């Protein structure tokens, strides 16, 4: 099978796909997230339940949206499916994950990392995205098309110090190429993956940071 010269950070492997392996490593994978948050948050707990207290402000100081938002951006090429009717902290966790997915896709399609990623999602996440952008730019990778994302099963831990969600990325309508040719999503290492993502409260009210991702299988 041909291998594209792109780095995927999705699933579990922030390596050029030609040598991608070791899905057990926490900082590797095609859609992925770092395993540790940079903020001092408690270890995620089991027995998550929905929360209901809405937040009031974002890092910019503007009032936060009180429900889960559809952050689909057809121009960028990202569509969120089945946006749930969440409120309060659960909605904040959903929106934060959707924003991170958007920045991840933006990084893949532009080979650049947006300002503010480090503040919102932590230095680990920002460093991973920067490595992906640099490697893909070096390999002259060209990723485009549309990714379809579904974020579901959002639940807040009883102590309010963490949240979990299921994230499914579908790259069937995405395109992948480099100077050597074009590739199917499967050849590029972007098969559909179901991931359990854990987030913890960030430094700004209403924003949650990536803490851990676990690949559970295909969507």
Characterization of this structure:
There is one protein chain. With 219 residues, the protein is α+β, with helices and mostly antiparallel strands. 20% of the residues lie in helices and 26% in strands. The protein is built from three helices and six strands; from the N terminus they run E-H-H-H-E-E-E-E-E. Strands 1, 2, 3, 4, 5 and 6 form a six-stranded mixed beta sheet that branches. A hairpin with a 2-residue loop joins strand 3 and strand 4. Helix 1 runs parallel beside helix 3. The chain is globular, with a radius of gyration of 17 Å. It starts with 77 loop residues before the first strand and ends with a strand.
Kindly report how far apart the N and C termini lie.
23 Å
- State the helical fraction: 10-25%
Mean pLDDT: 75
Query: How many E strands?
Result: 6
Helix/strand-derived category reads alpha+beta
Runs in which pLDDT lies below 50 for 5 or more consecutive residues are: 9-64
- Assembly context of the chains: single chain
Strand content is: 25-35%
Number of helices: 3
Rg from C-alpha positions? 17 Å
- SSE string, helices as H and strands as E: EHHHEEEEE
For the biggest sheet, the summary is: 6 strands, mixed
Shape descriptor: globular
How would you summarize what this structure contains?
The protein is of the alpha+beta class. It has helices spanning 88-110, 117-121, 123-138, and strands at 78-81, 142-156, 163-178, 181-183, 193-201, 208-217. Helix 1 (88-110) runs parallel beside helix 3.
